[in-house]
Design goal:
Keywords: Coiled coil, Hydrolase, Metal-binding, Protease, Zinc. Helices cover 64% and strands 8% of the residues. The chain is an alpha/beta fold. A five-stranded mixed sheet has the order 2-1-3-5-4, with helices on one face. The longest helix is centred in the middle third of the chain and has 64 residues, at 94-157. It is rod-shaped, with a radius of gyration of 38 Å.
Amino acid sequence: MILAGVVLVLGFFSYQTHTEPQVRYNSLIHRLTYPTDLRVRYRIGDVDERFGLSHDEVKRLAHEAVMIWHDGTGRQWFVYDDSAKVSINLIYDERQMETTARQQIKQELDTLQQNHRRDSDNLARQRQALHDEFSRLQTELTAWQEQYNHTIHLINHTHDPNERQRLLGIEKQLRANQQALNAKIDAYQLSQDAFNQAVDDINHKAGHINHAIDHVNARLTPREFHKGQFDGHKIDIYEFENIDDLRLVLAHELGHALSIGHNDDPTALMYPYANEQDLHNFELKQADIDLLNERTLYR
């Protein structure tokens, strides 16, 4: 009789593990005590302080990651339990160091680009100011030339001594005006030379920025979800860019705790690369739900 009961229990557990494979990650004691509870129980384990997050903050983020699955399927797949078998750990190593280094490079690049945009805007204003100044000088020079030529013409054709004397006075004043105009032209040319040098400088900086962008892009290429790993007993998180990224990494690894693999939708949670997903307002995609459907009929 006892043997029959044991066989019955083992048969039930075998069938349950086949239809709801995530239950195998719960402790045997829990499965015996609560045989119909199909949720994966998890807890927060070690959190390296170098990540700058407290135990409670990681617990909150893990809950938000869990809710991605709950809200996306209408079913509770996970529950927090301080005595759970599955633990979530944040482990600081060279991967997070590399992530931090990439972030610093990106911040420096952002600063370079902001300065470049500011300098470009300043040059655009200077270019417009030089254009306006050139137009004014051209108008002023044309008016001076016309007045001077007209005055010389009158001087050459007048026979009145008094009128000639008056015209000579005007010519003298026009020559003085010419000197002032030439000074303006010289100042304009200096401004134009300085502007040309500034253009050369900003073009040189643009080349430096483009080189830096290539360098950053090489380090920021989409990578597989090696930021975390689920090994059947624990979820170890090794790196993340920010809080939103950590939430998505947690949700991705929790997906593996549901015994599902990867899909080929770049916007989906279970896509193997972190790239096109919406980090801020993520919702499960049909490709993620299809993985669950293929694994088991959870409806």
